[in-house]
Structures are given as structure tokens and as C-alpha cells.
Design brief:
Layout (H helix, E strand, L loop, with lengths): L3 H18 L3 H11 L4 H14 L10 H8 L12 E2 L2 E9 L4 E7 L4 E7 L7 H16 L8 E6 L5 E6 L4 E2 H8 L3 H20 L2 E2 L8 E3 L5 E3 L6 E2 L11 H4 L9 H4 L6 H17 L11 H10 L5 H4 L2 H4 L9 H14 L11 H12 L11 H11 L1 H49 L15 H13 L5 H17 L3 H19 L4 H16 L3 H18 L5 H16 L3 H16 L6 H16 L3 H19 L4 H16 L3 H19 L4 H16 L3 H19 L4 H16 L3 H18 L5 H16 L3 H18 L5 H16 L3 H16 L6 H17 L3 H15 L8
Antiparallel strand pairs: 1-2, 2-3, 3-4, 4-6, 5-6, 7-9, 8-11, 9-10
Helix pairs in contact: 1-3, 2-3, 7-10, 7-15, 7-24, 10-14, 14-15, 17-18, 18-19, 19-20, 20-21, 21-22, 21-23, 22-23, 23-24, 23-25, 24-25, 25-26, 25-27, 26-27, 27-28, 28-29, 29-30, 29-31, 30-31, 31-32, 31-33, 32-33, 33-34, 33-35, 34-35, 35-36, 35-37, 36-37, 37-38
Length: about 900
């Protein structure tokens, strides 16, 4: 770049470009001629940028320094700005992305290759510096095997920011598939990896906003890496006026951008879904849906916003259909592939896949030869769109017709229907009133109402009353549904199932198999199956219910929000926490639109907090739980089961942080409310007893803990049977008590049963299995069976690696415990490796568990003594002493 004059001119060019880009193309030249004050060269420079803006290989996809160089006639080629940067040696330029230059560098001490991204000429635009910093922050929070990882970030001496990330040696997705002549199954498998990475980003509240094949590289081993989060955005920061985001939006690639992105409207996860649809289209058809080459900006925008893309199958030549290319599939398969692409690419965001997870499900359906959940647009939908586009003309024409017809039939039909409806509703109301009054009568009407009625008595009597309403099957079905849900809440699952099944069958007969009423019954059954830990069946039922509701109800109908929240809870109970968080966020948005203080919203937020907790995000979980606690207290008062659940959840967070006394305080408050509401023999009470018992175990209050846990186990086995996750959770704590009392055979039996239950319920894959294996390993360590203990700890770590993020606290705890086993087995070098890994992982936590850190320090000091490395042993003994001397942690 030249001197001050050139930089000032470039700043002026930038400002004028962004102002002109927000105007319709016909008005841009007039605006520039007025704003440039007769400077024809300045007008020409800005028009160059505007013309390039519409092209797929736009100049604006290049870094701003290069744009400025071309506009200001700086023909110099950027040289390497330095040879070394800290431990990194720069080898060559890899490329120039949207906001900086990317260099291939080698970390000299490790010999590993990395990509070093530098914001060159950062003084050109403060907005560029902020976007560059935002990209660093985004990458720092994303930890997924298919997303290029951030390793390091800092600034040069002159303040120029840079960051170091994973170097990906691979080909763009479309080029890789073309070069390898990949089958359609292989292309979909690779595409599914891309979707999983995008879904993970969405679950962390990040929208990519610039998905395209060049940002998706396939490595030689067939794994993919998603790159370039330069204009990614936090979901919560997207709800801003369009003009405030115009700069970022102008950096997207038009051919892959959603219509709402091109218009500068508010974006959502459906915007990334659209881009994924375009990518899949290109993978299948071998070309993008629209050819934008040689089109003026206004023409390109018209094509993208108003033209419907042709079916991918129509873009594939006859010759390629006969070859080994992906086009060589039958017509039925192409029909499904067309639906996959065109559903994702629908111009109306509400008509696209609701989430990337929904897109993945249909890809899986295709690969398994199953029917797709998406369906092509029906005539009714297209007719509705036509009516909305031509509302005045249709309304006028329809008004004339309806006026003539209406005058003829108005009085006859209206009076008849009103009379019949009023009579039917009056009779129905009378039946409901009589039903309610009968509930509160005693066994003998002559002696008046009973004064000792219990809830279960009322519900049992209600069932008897409902069974005689055979003359009004609609009312009977509603009562069966309501009473079945009450039985579910009372923990009487068999009785609940009978009533809910009866309600479903009656509603199918009354309203048809595909109706909102049947959808409601399916959701109630899904909730029951979830309580019974029949998670496969529960998820199938709730998805059927949601699909049915979406076909028949308005998008903002409360039943859709309720069903979406139930799906999120079931995914949470299955251990699919990332997917659950994304679905629950969608449910919360639906429910917030109608009432920000509703009971349904607080329940959804509670499940979201639970999912964040199980995913190891304790700080975020605590923030949500505190919000929910305040909302529940406003809605229900101080002594309600929802308030009790909030308190118990906050106790669980304190427990994981090692604040056991604080956890006990929360647990006792929650148990007191739960017990007073439900009584002493209810599954909710059993769950609260288990949580308090778990906290007391960690405080070594074993006698009280054992009493509480045995009572909880009795209730849970009575309600749920012998094989249920709640039963396993209580057995886990009883096994720990037996171990602490030296009753190792009893502990082994309890914990072995815990492992078997979890493996049975979760099909052999859930991090609960890892916890149970780790605890069972601890028993063998106490018995000095170090070989068995080591095997179980390593099995637990393998389970964690399949179900948790690599930085989860449970990894650190398991490594520390494995290190202790190896230490006691006098395998000091191996022990040091495990203890150090565990120590480092625990130290990285936002709120490190001090009890496990102290244990790791103790073991490391002993291991370094044995390895004759006294200087390292001294370091950890110093940390031990410093932490022992600290005052007790302040409680929140």
C-alpha cells in the first residue's frame, strides 16, 4: 500500500460501496455521481466493486488488502512478512481468504504443520479487525472432529492479529467426489459429515453463513473439515436491523446464499440449511442449481430470489445416467433425491427442514431405503401461495361468488348449525359437570361427600365415571387422555398406558388416523414411553406426532412448541445432548413468541439447562437454571415441584464443582418441597432422595445416605421395575457406600448391576456406562486387583470418547483415577502420563474440581519422586500446600 493519500481514498471507496450496495441497482450510479462531487475516477472505482459483488468469483471474496491493491494499482505481490513467529516457521502462502492471508507454517518443536491466518493491513477497516476477532472466538468455542481446530491466537508487535489453526491437506468436497467418481452413497456419507459439523455449530449457537464446497475440504483419509468461520454469527446476535449486518452479508457467496441472506433479512439456522441444500444439489447434479455467469447483479438477484431451481434429476444428462456416476440410480431414488435438495432449498424458510438434524434424518432415511419425512409441496400449499400473491384480485372475485351463494344459504344453515352446536355443547358441559361432581362424592351418597379423599382415589373414581360415557365418545376420549396423564404423573405407568391407548384408538375412530387430536394422543404416549425408558419408541411416537401437528396446525400453534420440547427431552434422555440442545432452543423460540413467562417455556428451559449440564457446560446450565428458578417462583410460588426441581438441579451443579455442603443445602430444600407435594411414596420423591443421598455420600455421611438411598430404590423398583436408569443411578450410590465401608463384594454386585442396566437401556452407548465402569474399577482398585481396575478404567475412557467432548471433566477424573491405579501397581512412568493428562484436563475447566486436582497433585508428586525428578515433585507439593492453605470457597 502507498501513503496516507491512498489509504484515505480507499476508506472513501469502502464507505461509498456499502452505501451504494444497499440501494437498488438502477439508483446506484445516480447516487455515486452525486456523492462523489464530480470525481469520475472515484465513481468508476466504486462501480467496479458493485459489478464484482454479484459474481460467484467476486473480487469481494478476496481480502480487502488485495481489493485495495487492485483499485489503487498496487501490483506488488505480498511477500512473507516474517520467517518465524514464536515456535512457528512460515513456509509459504497457502491462500488469501475473506479477511486475511493464510500461511503454511511448521511448529518447530513438534514438527507439525499448521495454518497461520494473519489479518494483513488491519488498519484498513476496524470492522475487519472485529470480524477477524469474532472468527477466533467462534473457533475457540467449537470442538468437533469435522471442524478445523484453533490452536493459538495472538498479535504481532504492531498489533496485527493472527491465529493458528489446524492445517487441512485436502480437496474441496465437490472436486474430491468428481476426482474419485464417488458413488451416490459415498457422496451422501460425506455430506452427512458436513451436516453433523454444521449441526454441532448450531448447537453452540453459531451460524456459519458462508457454506460452500470450497469451505469444505476432504482429507485423503476421507474425513472432512469445515473451514472459514469468518462471517459466522452467534444466533442471539442475529436479530438486528438489516443495515447493521449489511457489511457481513455482502461477504457471502451469492450462489450458495439463502434468499433472506441476499435480501439482508434476519437469518436463522434455516439459512445454513439452504446452503447445505445447494451443496447437495451440486454434489448430485454436478453443477449448481443456477448459472449466474455473465449476469448483471440485478439479474442474478432476480434469478436467486424469484426463479425455482430445476430438479437435480433434470440437470443430469442421459449419458451420465448410464455411467458409474451418481446419476446411475433409478427414478424412484431420484425422486427422493430431488425432495432432499428442494426441501432444503425452499425459498420460504418455514418450508425448509426445521433444522440440520431433520435434514440428516432424511439423508439417513434415503441411505436405509426408508420413506422421507419431507414431502413435495401439495396443491393446497401452492394454491395458498397464489392467493397470498394475488390477494386483492382473488378476494374481489371470491367476494362476488360468495355473496350470491351466501345470501341463499345463510339463514337456513347458520340457524340450524348454531342450534345443533349449542345443544351439543350444553350436553357435553353438563356431562363434564356431572363427572366432576361425582368424583367428590363418597362411597354412599346418603352420607354426603367423603372427607378423606386422596388424589389416587379421585383418579380411580374418575376412570370408572369416564367408562360409562359410551354415548359421548369424544368426551370419553378427552377424559381418558387427561386421566392417563394424571396417572403418569402419579407414577402409575401401567394404568396410564391403558387409558392413553384407549384414548388414541377412540380418537382415530372419531377424527381419522391423521388429525390434530391423534397427534396429541401420540405425544402423550411418547411421554409415557420416555418415562418407561423405552426411548426408541418414544422418539418415533413424538416425531409422528410433530409431523402430524405441522400438517394440520398453524406454525405458531402451542401444540407444535410443546411437541418440539418433548422431542428435545427424549433426545436428552437418550444422551444425544447436542441434538437435544438444538431442538430445545427451537422449542423455546416457539414458546417465547407467544408468552415469555409461560409454564411450558420454563419446562423447556429446564430441559435445556439439564442438557447443558450433562454436556459438561456447568456455568451455562447454572445461568439457565437460575433464570428458570426466578420464573417458576413467579408463576407457582415458593413451594411447587417445579421450584423443587430447579433447586435440585442447582445442587447437582454445585456437586460437580466439589461444593458438597452447598449441594446438600439445595438438595434438602428440593426434597422438602417434593415430599410435601407428592408424599413419601412417589417416584419424584425417590429421585430427590437419590440426589440428597448422593451428596451425603461425598460428605462421608454414610448412614443417613444409605437409609435415603434404600428407600429411593424401593420406590423406584416398585414404579419402574428392576431395569430403569433411575434404579441404576440409586444402585450406583449404594455401591459407593458399600465400597467406602469395605464391603467390596456387595459394592461389586451393586455396580455390576448398574453397568448392566445402563448397557441394556442405552444400547451399550452412553456416558452413564462410563461412570458406572469407572466406579466399578474403583472397587477392584480397593481389592488391589489392579489389572481388572485398569481394564475397566480404560473401557470407561473409551466410552467417554464416544459420547462426550474431549475436554469434559469426566475425562480428567478418569485419567486421574487410572493414574492412581498404575501408581499403586508401581508403574510410575505410565502413571505419570495418566495423572498429568487428568491434571491438565481438570485445570482447563471453568470451575476446576479442587478435590480431584489435589488428588492428582498428590499422585504426581509421588510419581516424580519415584522417577527421580525431584524438581517436578517440588512443584506439585508447593501447589498442594498452597491450596491446602486457601480459605474455604465462597458459596454462590
Amino acid at each position: 500500500m502507498g501513503g496516507l493519500l491512498d489509504s484515505s481514498r480507499w476508506e472513501r471507496i469502502q464507505a461509498l460501496f456499502h452505501e451504494a450496495a444497499a440501494l437498488p441497482p438502477p439508483e446506484q450510479r445516480g447516487f455515486l455521481e452525486s456523492a462523489c462531487g464530480g470525481d469520475d475516477g472515484l465513481v468508476a472505482d466504486v462501480l467496479v466493486l458493485l459489478q464484482e459483488d454479484a459474481r460467484g468469483d467476486s473480487l469481494l471474496d478476496q481480502p480487502l488488502a488485495e481489493i485495495a491493491g487492485k483499485i489503487l494499482d498496487d501490483g506488488s505481490k505480498p511477500a512473507l512478512p516474517f520467517q518465524e513467529l514464536g515456535p512457528y516457521r512460515v513456509r509459504r502462502v497457502l491462500g488469501e481468504g475473506g479477511m486475511g492471508v493464510v500461511y503454511l507454517a511448521e511448529r518447530q518443536d513438534l514438527g507439525s504443520l499448521v495454518a497461520l491466518k494473519l489479518l494483513r493491513d488491519a488498519w484498513l477497516s476496524p470492522a475487519r479487525r472485529e470480524r477477524f476477532a469474532a472468527e477466533q472466538r467462534t473457533l475457540a468455542q467449537l470442538n468437533h472432529p469435522s471442524i478445523a481446530r484453533l490452536y493459538d491466537a495472538d498479535s504481532l508487535a504492531d498489533g496485527t492479529p493472527y491465529f493458528v489453526m489446524e492445517y487441512v491437506d485436502g480437496l474441496p468436497l465437490t472436486e474430491y467426489c468428481a476426482r474419485h467418481e464417488s458413488s451416490i452413497e459415498r457422496r451422501l456419507q460425506l455430506f452427512r459429515q458436513v451436516c453433523e459439523a454444521v449441526q454441532y455449530a448450531h448447537s453452540n449457537a453459531v451460524i456459519h453463513r458462508d457454506l460452500k464446497p470450497s469451505n469444505i475440504l476432504v482429507k485423503p483419509d476421507g474425513t472432512i473439515r469445515l473451514l472459514d468461520f469468518g462471517i459466522a454469527k452467534q444466533i442471539e446476535s442475529l436479530d438486528v436491523p438489516a443495515q447493521q449486518t449489511m457489511t457481513g452479508l455482502r461477504l457471502m457467496t451469492p450462489a450458495y446464499a439463502a434468499p433472506e441472506q441476499i435480501r439482508g433479512q434476519r437469518l436463522g439456522i434455516q439459512s445454513d440449511v439452504y446452503s447445505l441444500g445447494v451443496i447437495l444439489y451440486e454434489l448430485l447434479a454436478g453443477q449448481p442449481p443456477f448459472d449466474l455467469s455473465n449476469l448483471a447483479p440485478a439479474e442474478a438477484e432476480t434469478v436467486l430470489l424469484e426463479h425455482e431451481p430445476p430438479r437435480p434429476s433434470a440437470r443430469v444428462s442421459h449419458a451420465s445416467r448410464q455411467s458409474s456416476s451418481p446419476a446411475s440410480v433409478n427414478s424412484a431414488s431420484w425422486a427422493d433425491l430431488d425432495i432432499l435438495c428442494l426441501t432444503a432449498m425452499h425459498k420460504d424458510p418455514e418450508r425448509r427442514y426445521r433444522s440440520v438434524e431433520a435434514f440428516i434424518r432424511d439423508v439417513d432415511h434415503y441411505l436405509r431405503g426408508e420413506p422421507l419425512e419431507a414431502r413435495p409441496d401439495k396443491v393446497s400449499y401452492r394454491l395458498g401461495k397464489f392467493v397470498r400473491r394475488n390477494r386483492r384480485e382473488v378476494t374481489a372475485a371470491a367476494g362476488v361468488v360468495l355473496l350470491v351463494i351466501g345470501l341463499v344459504v345463510f339463514f337456513t344453515l347458520r340457524l340450524t348449525r348454531a342450534r345443533d352446536a349449542a345443544l351439543a355443547e350444553a350436553a357435553r358441559t353438563q356431562r363434564i359437570q356431572r363427572f366432576t361432581m361425582n368424583l367428590f362424592q363418597g362411597g354412599d351418597e346418603a352420607v354426603g361427600p367423603a372427607d378423606d379423599l386422596r388424589v389416587v382415589t379421585l383418579v380411580d373414581r374418575g376412570v370408572q365415571e369416564a367408562r360409562v360415557l359410551t354415548g359421548d365418545p369424544r368426551t370419553q376420549a378427552e377424559l381418558y387422555q387427561t386421566l392417563g396423564s394424571v396417572y403418569l404423573n402419579l407414577g402409575k405407568l401401567d394404568e396410564a398406558g391403558k387409558l392413553l391407548d384407549a384414548s388414541l384408538e377412540q380418537r382415530k375412530s372419531l377424527f381419522g388416523a391423521d388429525s390434530p387430536e391423534v397427534a396429541e394422543s401420540l405425544a402423550a404416549l411418547a411421554e409415557l414411553r420416555d418415562s418407561q425408558a423405552q426411548y426408541d419408541e418414544a422418539e418415533k411416537l413424538v416425531r409422528r406426532s410433530l409431523d402430524m401437528s405441522k400438517r394440520h396446525l398453524a406454525p405458531n400453534h402451542p401444540e407444535i412448541g410443546k411437541g418440539t420440547a418433548l422431542l428435545g427431552k427424549i433426545l436428552e434422555d437418550r444422551g444425544k445432548y447436542d441434538a437435544a440442545i438444538a431442538v430445545l432452543q427451537e422449542a423455546a423460540q416457539l414458546q417465547s413468541a407467544s408468552d415469555s413467562q409461560s409454564a411450558e417455556l420454563t419446562a423447556t428451559l429446564t430441559e435445556m439447562a439439564n442438557s447443558e449440564f450433562y454436556a459438561g457446560h456447568y456455568d451455562l446450565s447454572e445461568t439457565i437454571n437460575q433464570r428458570v428458578l426466578a420464573m417458576d417462583r413467579r408463576i407457582y410460588g415458593e413451594r411447587h415441584p417445579h421450584v423443587a426441581d430447579d433447586l435440585i438441579n442447582l445442587g447437582a451443579i454445585q456437586f460437580e464443582r466439589g461444593h458438597f455442603a452447598e449441594a446438600e443445602r439445595y438438595y434438602r430444600q428440593g426434597l422438602d418441597i417434593t415430599q410435601s407435594f407428592y408424599g413419601t411414596d412417589h417416584p419424584a420423591t425417590a429421585s430427590a432422595l437419590t440426589m440428597l443421598g448422593r451428596g451425603l455420600v461425598s460428605e462421608k455421611k454414610l448412614d443417613e445416605a444409605a437409609t435415603l438411598l434404600q428407600e429411593a430404590l424401593r420406590i423406584q423398583e416398585k414404579v419402574f421395575g428392576k431395569v430403569h436408569p433411575r434404579v441404576a443411578g440409586t444402585l450406583n450410590e449404594l455401591g459407593k457406600i458399600a465400597q467406602m465401608r469395605g464391603k467390596y463384594d456387595e459394592a461389586e454386585a451393586d455396580l455390576t448391576r448398574t453397568v448392566e442396566i445402563y448397557k441394556s437401556i442405552y444400547a451399550g452407548k452412553h456416558y452413564y456406562i462410563g461412570i458406572a465402569l469407572s466406579n466399578l474399577a474403583g472397587v477392584f482398585a480397593e481389592k488391589k486387583d489392579y489389572a481388572q481396575a485398569e481394564r475397566l478404567f480404560r473401557e470407561a475412557l473409551q466410552m467417554y470418547s464416544q459420547t462426550l467432548g474431549p475436554d469434559h471433566q469426566l475425562f480428567g477424573v478418569a485419567h486421574v483415577r487410572l493414574g492412581r491405579v498404575l501408581l499403586h501397581d508401581h508403574r510410575y512412568a505410565e502413571a505419570e502420563v495418566e495423572s498429568r493428562v487428568g491434571y491438565d484436563l481438570l485445570n482447563k475447566q471453568a470451575t476446576p474440581p479442587e478435590n480431584w486436582l489435589q488428588l492428582a497433585r498428590t499422585d504426581l508428586a509421588e510419581e516424580y519422586d519415584a522417577l527421580r525428578q525431584p524438581e517436578k515433585a517440588v512443584k506439585f507439593r508447593s501447589e498442594l500446600a498452597a491450596n491446602d492453605a486457601k480459605p474455604p470457597l465462597q458459596k454462590n
